[in-house]
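Hi P.,

Sorry for the delay on this. The queue was packed all week, but I finally got your sequence through. Input first:
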Amino acid sequence: MEGIIDRFEESFAVVELENGEMQDISREQLPSDAQEGDVLIFTQADGWQIDARQTEARRVRLRRKLEALWEGNN
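Then the structure:
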């Protein structure tokens, strides 16, 4: 199962799962360095882990989209 951290609310992270559903996950179940926008992978053996490669690729795509929007407005 995969998901993306949408936001944090109190002791939970609101995670958008790959099927589009939103799920509250206790912060205690996530790595201590988890941040909004991180891509998470869940396995029975390891629980929720950050997929650093997918997270960085997602951030690069979003940055490029934002740059294109700014360039289009100038």
